[in-house]
User: Fold this.
Amino acid sequence: MSFKTITLDVDAGVAMLTLNRPDKLNAFNREMMHELIAAFDEVDERDEIRAVIVTGAGRGFCAGADLSAGADTFDYKARGMAETGLGDAHRDGGGRVTLRMFDCLKPVIGAINGPAVGIGATMLLPMDIRLASDTARFGFVFTRRGIIMEACSSYFLPRIVGVSQALEWTMTGRVFSADEALRGGLVRSVHAGADLLPAARTLAREIADNTAPVAVALNRRLIWSMLGASHPMDAHNVDSRLIYQRGSSADTKEGVMSFLEKRPAQFPNKVSGDMPPVFPWEKKRQFE
Assistant:
């Protein structure tokens, strides 16, 4: 599929998804929203893709929402969008992207190469691992624009960095450095600009070359789902069902035998056809 606001390139099982409006510091607009959702649909459909790196073209990651509509940028009524909250047009576009990213079946690695503010910052939160350039800057700037945090960030951010840190960053709305993001737990590591993408690729390759894709997808979902569990027994129930189910899979047999035979594993199961038909601990969600 061809895109206008992003690019999607695949090399040896690793997809590079690049926000591609460099003249606008990759500002987020409705077209980018639709294209990001379509890109993650494509990522899930293509079994040869084992991991995704998300970065930005030029000197920025994403400068936030495109403010070309001026004072009416966030005024849905003035822009003729639905008022009820039930229609597709009224749904927060950033939230639609982060929900799709959350449901992705492949690991998502953020390589934040420059400023990431507003939706540029909240878009990072459902990513599994985030690496930053030493020139990156982050900002949950919503209070300074008179609006609230979006893109499901009230769910994600405190789970990643803790309640107090999430409150400080969102209440002040200030822009902060990559080093502060590292201290606060938002990013895993900080790199010189030239080293950022190689470090992200090394991490993606470690996953792509050594792991079973179905197991990766299930473990990814287990971690997020069990954050809301009321007791470890909830995790035990799910673990037991999935271990029983996957224990007879071709992947598990291959994983054991490749270890015993001291050779690289060749996992045959695919996320496109071998995932549980419904995750046994979840109900289907629908926006209503």
Remarks:
- Confidence is low (pLDDT under 50) at residues 71-75.
- The first strand starts at residue 6 and ends at 11.
- Residues 211-288 form one domain.
